[in-house]
Structures are given as C-alpha cells and as structure tokens.
Amino acid sequence: MAYLELDKIRKTWGAHTAVEGFDLAVEEGEFVSFLGGSGCGKTTTLRMVAGFETPDSGKLTLAGEDLTLVSPNKRNVGMVFQNYALFPNLTVAQNVAFGLKVRRVPHPEIQRRVDEMLGTVHLGDFGGRYPHQLSGGQQQRVALARALAPRPRVLLLDEPLSALDAAIRQHLRIEIRTLQKSLGITTIYVTHDQEEALSLSDRIVVMDKGRIEQIGTPAQIYHQPANAHVAAFVGHLGVLTGVGSADGRFTIAGQTVTPPRPLVPGAPARWSLRPETLVLDPRDPKLERLSATVQSVAFLGSVLRTLVEVGDQMVPVDAFVDPKQDQPRVGATVTVGWARDAGWVE
Fold first, then answer.
1. Cα-to-chain-centroid distance, residue 40
2. What is the DSSP secondary structure assignment for residue 118, as one 8-state letter?
3. What one-character-per-residue DSSP string does 146-193 give?
4. b/e for 148-166, b at 16 or more Cβ within 10 A?
5. Which residues 6+ apart lie within 8 Å of 191 measured at CB?
6. What is the pTM for the complete model shown?
7. How far is it, in rounded angstroms, from Cα 113 to Cα 103?
8. pLDDT, tens only, 235-247
9. Which end of the chain lies in a sparser environment, N or C, as judged by fewer CB atoms within 10 Å?
10. Angle, vertex CA 304, rays to CA 288 and CA 241, nearest 5
C-alpha cells in the first residue's frame, strides 16, 4: 500500500465537474507535482488532500488511515499558499510558532523548533522582523518554515513561487527540493509552470479538464507523452501536418519523408517534433530532411531558436549557441533534418 492514496476522487461545483476519476498512489518521501493550466482541477485536488474541500465520491487515505471526511486540523498536513498567508501583525518567529501553539506544544519545544526551521530556511536572524519588512522570497521561506514546524506527514504547496520574479523562483526551486530531500517529507506541489514541474519532481501528474492525462517521471512526460495535449503542454513542440503518400510515407508541401511506421495512403497525419531534435543543414545522410525558409532567429542565451517555414507551417529549431558560427539569415533557404524515430506521428 502506498503512503498517500487517492482512489476515484470526484468533485463537482454545481453542473461543473472540477475533478473526475482521480487515481494516484504516492510513496513516502516522494515529490509529486500536479501540472496543468488554469481550471484543470489541480488546486481543487490539493485542497481535498488538505481537507479544505470534501470529495463528492472516492476515498483518500494517508498511511493507511481514511482521511476522506477528516477535518483539516486533524490531518497533520502542512500547506504553503501562493500568497504566503502570513499574519501581518505577528513577527516571523511568531508566524512560524503559530501552528505549534495551536497544537499546545510546550514553549521550550516551540522555541527550539522555530529556531531550527528558521535556520533551515536561512532566516535565522530574521525572527524579530514583520512580514512587510521582508522580500517576497523571504516571506515564502517563512511560510515554508511555518508549514514544516509541526512536522507534518505531508507537505502541500499551491503554486508557491508564482508571485516571485524569475531569478528568485529558480533559486527557491533549488532550496525547496534540497529541503524536501533532506527532510524526506512526502510532498505534493501544484504548478502551471512546466519547468518547475520538470526540475522538482520525482513524478508529474499532468491534468486537463479535471482528469489525469498522464502520470510519469519528468523524462517520461517529456520524451514519451501520452497524447498530443501532454506533448504540447510540456516543452516546446513543432507540428508538421501532412498526408500519407501512396507508399506509406509522409508528404508535406510537396516534399516527402519517411516516418517510423507506414502511414495510410491519403490519410491526414501529424509529425510532432521537439525543437532540440531538429538540425539545420545536417551533414548526416541518414536524417530525414525538408527544405525550409528561415522566418526568425531568437538569441536565448545558451540556445539559438530558429523558426523555419515548411510550406506554410512554422517549426522551431533549437541549437546551442556557437560564437564562432554565423547565425542563420532570415529569408534564407535551409534544410531541416531529424532522425526518423524522433517525435510522434499520429
């Protein structure tokens, strides 16, 4: 039996189904992210784990205990919110101590845990300050310390970094993952940011319209997406739309390439490709190749993204920047190539 289990969870709001048929088994110490766009049901599912919402049907168990109808204060789970939810009239130390006081932990132990948690999140000298005296990143560290102080059985994080700027988000991602590993705490993380989910998680649950689209490791989600929605949502994707030729090959804009499997002659087909699997003007004769026109070139630091047009279809091509090599010229005719087994044909 898994440590945390959600079995056929369903939640509706009137005529709207927020979550349907949600099945998930989380191992103790695992870091699992719920990934999806707005309204996909990820936060509603998290709130049901926390006890803030009650499923219409299904069962939720933690360490073998049925928590489906148990109130939030009796679940011993820690929650970190997007907007920090700190008490503005309490100091940092008092915020961290709040949950411990509610549980009537003895004062010496409260002081010990507050000091321990503030040290863990690198705010050991900030206990006497108030939330408005802290940066956004520091406030989120306080929220994390407060959630961890009571030693919860599960840590729940609801888009905790979305209000922060990019540099702080990246730094705190590393801190959260390092802290989670060191404590060995089972963690559920809600995000709409694919980069966050890919970099943080042991496994990712991709959701859409209240349902699970795919559960897998970051590598599985990225390289072996279950469907077109997952492939398009996680990572960048170029899609070539064509038709099966008489010999089962793939024809687009008057050009023909060989797919990994024969296509139905005359039937519409799509070949979806990650930008990093494509090569401009390839030297390898084994690669599939099409003639294309350069439409734009974007410098992204370590990566150069070239948008090429095949017929009237745009495809991005990513390559590491080589300072010694000239960038493709907009309007130039180039050859775009890729391995026959790259991407997904449907």
1. 13
2. H
3. HHHTT--SEEEEESTTTTS-HHHHHHHHHHHHHHHHHHT-EEEEEES-
4. bbbebbbbbbbbbbeebee
5. 33, 34, 35, 42, 159, 161, 162, 197
6. 0.89
7. 13
8. 889 999 999 999 9
9. N
10. 40
